[in-house]
């Protein structure tokens, strides 16, 4: 069993500062924690690492007062700020590569102890689609599964309403205190009382378009599988399904008439190998064998990456030049960079980390990276 003690109040604020500092994403956060052993030591090292990566101006570190104000705002709301290796963090989500280091949670934390299924679909859902989503959610809840969705109108709303009595979790695109859409204000309060609300953004954050794809990866990451009830091509529900596939989750899709645009996304998923889903039996046939793994996921925590060996002074310039030259605007696997440049994994990882802190590197699913060409 690989468990970690709860964060102290000082460590929690250091984690918050590091996660809110410039160019520090979830993957980078874990790498820094593994390299330096603590968030405070990583914060002290960020300016020099960014400079080595080629950054011309100082990197912006989150000021201590800003982190404290954010933390206190959440406390006033009754929300808790939970670290990715603490007990109240969604157990399955912590095993996702880009899981947020910290999550705000508000409501009934007992929902986290249940295995979960995501249900998503069209905001402009049909009456039958909403009825089916609510029915699936209620039946899955009766079978001991929590439901995860995004509090959007349509299918999300129906899924939450169907699972309020048995266990539901809403992942928000904005702050833990921001109700979107406003028409779901009553549902938000009911979930707060009986279910669980989750958010990775600071309290008061209004949901913007760029927040929703990141929200979707949390829905799929917290669940063993995702059921798509209705979805138009290019919709956010299909983004959630794609995230689920990237995370190794099961994907289920409800078929529909080819004459209904809302059915095309689900029909496409079925053609691509998603489980055709008409009743709860189609879902449970796949997921019930996974139920025993819930306890294992709760108890076993992914290890923080080990210490990264930085290049020696005499080889640092050569390492940076060769690794940067191997990168381009198209994503490439980190393993391929290691093979091509013939540096150790530790050196390649360290150089990529410095490039990312300098704002010159973008990470992609599948442990792939690409170079950002600055003007």
Total strands: the figure is: 12
SSE sequence, one letter per element: HHHHEEEHEHEHEHEHEHEHHHEHHEE
Mean pLDDT: 91
Main sheet specs: 9 strands, mixed
Individual helix count: 15
Quickly name the level 1 CATH class of the largest domain: Alpha Beta
Strand order of the largest sheet: 1-2-6-5-4-3-7-8-9
Number of domains: 3
Percentage of residues assigned to helices? 40-55%
- Measure the end-to-end span: 48 Å
Overall geometric form: globular
C-alpha Rg (nearest Å): 21 Å
Quick description:
By secondary structure, the chain is α/β, with parallel strands linked by helices. Helices cover 45% and strands 13% of the residues.
Please, could you describe this protein's structure?
The chain has helices at residues 9-19, 26-36, 39-52, 64-77, 127-142, 155-162, 185-194, 211-221, 236-246, 261-271, 280-287, 293-299, 313-326, 334-341, 345-357; strands at residues 80-83, 102-107, 116-120, 146-149, 168-171, 196-199, 225-228, 250-253, 275-276, 332-333, 361-364, 368-371. The chain has 375 residues and is an alpha/beta fold. The chain folds into 3 domains: 9-103, no CATH class; 105-296, Rossmann fold (3-Layer(aba) Sandwich); 313-371, Winged helix-like DNA-binding domain superfamily/Winged helix DNA-binding domain (Arc Repressor Mutant, subunit A, Orthogonal Bundle), CATH 1.10.10.10. The strands form 2 sheets. Strands 1-2-6-5-4-3-7-8-9 form a 9-stranded mixed β-sheet, with helices on both faces. The chain has a 3-stranded antiparallel β-sheet with strand order 10-12-11. β11 (361-364) and β12 (368-371) form a beta hairpin. α13 (313-326) packs across α15 (345-357). It starts with 8 loop residues before the first helix and ends with a strand. The relative contact order is 0.13.
